[in-house]
Amino acid sequence: MSVSVSQPDRANERAIVAELAAAPAATAGELERRAWIDRDTSWLEFNRRVLHEALDDRTPLLERAKFLAIFASNLDEFFQKRMAMIRPSAGDTSLAAEERRDLLLRIRGMIVSMLAEQAACYTDVIRPQLAAQGIHLLGWSDLTAAQREEASSVFDAEISPVLTPLSLDGAHPFPFVSNLSTSWAFQLLDPASGESVLVRVKVPRELPQWLRVRAGSGPAERVFVGLDQVIAANAEKLFPGMQVATANLFRVCRDAEVELGEEEGVSKRVLVEREVQQRRFEPVVRLEVQPNADLQMTSELAEQFELTRDDVYEMPALLDYTTLFEIADLEIEALRDPPWTPLPPTGLEAAEHDIFSAIRAGDILLHQPYDSFYAGVERFIREAADDPQTVSIKMTVYRVGDDTPFVQSLIRAAEAGKQVACVIELNARFDEARNLHWSRELEKVGAHVMFGVTGLKTHSKAALVVRKEDGGVRCYAHVATGNYHTRTARLYEDVGLLTAKPAVTRDVVNLFHFLTGRSQTPSFPTLLVAPMQMRARFVELIEGEIANHELGRPARIICKMNQLEDREICLLLARASQAGVPVDLIVRGLCCLAPGVAGLTENIRIRSIVGRFLEHSRIFHFAAGSGDPLEGEFLIGSADWMHRNLSERVEAAVPIFEPRLRARLWEILEVCLADHRNAWELQTDGSYVQLRPDPADQGPARDGTHATMMRLARARHGV
User: Fold this and answer.
1) Virtual CA dihedral for 439, 441, 447, 451, nearest 10 degrees?
2) What is the value of pTM for the model shown?
3) Is 136 a residue of the active site?
4) What Cα–Cα distance (Å) separates residue 444 from each residue in 399, 484, 559?
5) pLDDT tens-digit map of 489-535
6) Annotated catalytic residue within 52, 136, 459, 616
């Protein structure tokens, strides 16, 4: 897999590694004190970079609106996943609890400042610029009389029947408020008795959140008013004989971290169904209110949800920016990114030839969204399902989405009498209900459905096709970094390998045996599989670079991933830096390792790529003693360098053997490292600085990673 090393050299290498281990080097304590970045503040810094895409005037206008929505959606997820875990128990006075309270204050400060930036961007930039393009996002007071009449008619016919006003008085308990729901709290006054009552009206998510009104607008104009505004303006129709004294809009976010312990005799499916049901009733962790909200009303809501003042966020403009996804979806090409149509993967251009002969001719690298997901991964499973020579199809499923062609192909294969085995991860957060549904659909047609290994999430992305060929059987495998999800494949950048090499397919066979059966000591000579030997193998590869540097051989580490948090790996990277090994890391999201710390991480450079596509691939390169990067080690896989990935999940990474495929991976890494358009550099203090191209820059430095990769894909196909 890399350059050959003689036995004496290997002995010398081992001696150097042992000597380095005994020599003074970075310790866990030193790493913690000098070069460790808190994971939660690092994640918020990632979301700041997302917000900047909306602030950046180089981003097309509707895409800027979309990034405002993505920022808000990401923030929702942060509160759902992390806040309950960070918050200490009431009355806990320990040092750890005080440190967590300090962290919560830092987090709130970061969030409030970003919310102010978001509101200013929407109010001062996005709305006016959309209006200049004929797209008007208006409040009720901005509408003409004719437009109000039209909106009120829609309210009477289509909105009012969906609403369910709920009184809050002695005869009516406080109603259940669902996660991420927006509601009006109306204080009603009875003119006859002078009595007041509080009523809650939920803004229905089943309806469009922006109502288009056509009265008085020209053919090129689009006038929208928020659904919440229409409800408030017509509220008195819901309460005949009552007066609306005050109206306050609020939104809640609930904790989503629910994990029930295993119970003897209770199936995993039943446990997950219980978790999904219980999640609806988890504690509220955030209350959002409109500006100048009634203080008494806000206080009563906070008390009802058992929140402190610091859990309440006043939203300066929109209450729920995720509604802007509807606006961002407007089909106005001039205000969007230039359209991109993925191209057939190299090696699969000839659709008339079967995919299996193409794979036998040589390994195929797939790079979404530049390569067509339909013509690559989907085709692999689709042709296997319809192929009379196929004996068996096996897949792991983490997230597949709705109306997935993969499950439809597996169903078709099972109905045709083929053996189908699907390992579905039921605990894929926020996809549990969908995965439960698909597991039942597969079981209906006789497919073997398993839920992985007890105590471990199955996060690996792998598929296996077994065919009868030449009087025997041949295995074909797909190992990748991304999910089998057609929608995200158009938005997420990922890589995958299609191969018939026995060294790889034997390990994929063993991986599925491990996932579907029972094994204490599974063997994987080629694949890196967590939690068995992936961590140990990565440790060996990093230590190998240290040894190569000490021996005077070329040494370098370049890795691309989503997140970096594992302390053991970070400590080893620091030691590699101390030894003089250059380390380049492309970490799109949270990163807990600070680069550039003198005497510790000064040889480590870390950058993040944020732009049109979400960087999701995990690519690992180690020079392995060679000056030619194509002779080094290349791996791709499903795991980030996080403790949960390396120790608590089933993950798989595959080495890339063929030079032409290594050249493609090297091209990806080089483009990312040359980018001055979509790249941000991590600083020692945990902040990021956006790179800017110089006037003389060309290629990826000027155009960025995504535009460059699209250009290279077109060049490969001569278009």
Assistant:
1) 0
2) 0.94
3) no
4) 20, 21, 43
5) 999 999 999 999 999 999 999 999 999 987 778 899 999 999 999 99
6) 459
